[in-house]
Amino acid sequence: MSKTVQISSPAQFSGLLKSSKIVVTDFYADWCGPCKQIAPIYEQLSAQLSRPNHITFVKVNVETQKEVAAKYAVTAMPTFMIFKQGQVVEKVQGADPRKLQSVVKKLAAEADGGSSSSGFGGSSSSSDWRKSDLPKGYSDITDQVDLKGLELLNSDSEFGGVRVLVESSKPSGLQKDSKAKDWVESDTDEQLMMFMPFQSSLKVHTLQLTSLPPKASDDEEVPMRPKTIHIYTNRPQILGFEEAEDVPATQIITISENDWDATGTATIPLRFVKFQNVTTLVFFVVDGDGEGERVRLDRIRIVGETGEKRELGKLEKIGDEPGE
């Protein structure tokens, strides 16, 4: 469920400015194309950084909340304003995901006394539900995933969509009494295929995969954890299952039972030299660890370094020289 607050009155907005240390505000309009384009990025930030009375994400429809928009002289959409102790401290105009993420994460770190506890693009912290520390010298770069380009084949629609895999929020499988189905399960068999494009070229050092199948019961089949995964770099689009059999993988990883820690997370170092200047990854879950027919995946974390930003929507194959 989204943690973003939809503002329905000036009084509600004023109350939040008083009760929350930081208020991140998205001034938008339903007819605004760029507003719709950046909305998934804003929702991801909200899901990862929101904390009651500390950091609150809100949306203000300038058509229905004209008084609020006029008070802060909002004339262009989208406009993002960050309030600290009720005062505007940052303003971002236009759908610039990189700038928005940078400004919001900086304020979130300041709110925590100088160290980010979000798990979003920073070092591991005590509030991070994962137990495994990040490799020294590298950071969580999952925020570089281009959410609009994510694709997933052979997933059961009863469970969460592909975007839940790159959320940093604590999986429901680690929360008592949570009924949210915030994970992915394969559908007709144990195989999954996922296409993951990035906003910039990356150096990918390590993957952290989380899988939290429930304990076996008599009346239902329990999904398996992934066992064999083929990883492909810089493919322009998702592979078909038959096509993947003819394409050499950049790396094949095999996860054993002992690789999963107490949080259901396996930390997998990659052959770093093969994962330089990465603009897309394709994950092919070939089989699961067991005799079942379905595979479950809860979260994926990308660890490495960010590089040059690419223009969204244009995937270029690394290594090709531009034409004269």
Could you characterize what this model shows?
- Belongs to the thioredoxin family.
- This is PITH domain-containing protein.
- It holds the Pfam family PITH.
- GO terms for molecular function: protein-disulfide reductase activity.
- There is one protein chain.
- The protein is of the alpha+beta class and about 325 residues long.
- It has two domains: about 5-110, Glutaredoxin (3-Layer(aba) Sandwich); about 140-310, PITH domain (Jelly Rolls, Sandwich).
- About 15% of the residues lie in helices and about 30% in strands.
- It has five helices and 15 strands.
- The chain has helices spanning about 10-20, 35-50, 65-70, 95-110, 240-245; strands at about 5, 20-30, 55-60, 80-85, 85-95, 140, 150-155, 185, 190-210, 225-235, 250-255, 265-270, 280-290, 295, 300-310.
- Strands 6, 7, 9, 10, 11, 12, 13 and 15 form an eight-stranded antiparallel beta sheet that branches.
- Helix 2 packs parallel to helix 4 (about 95-110).
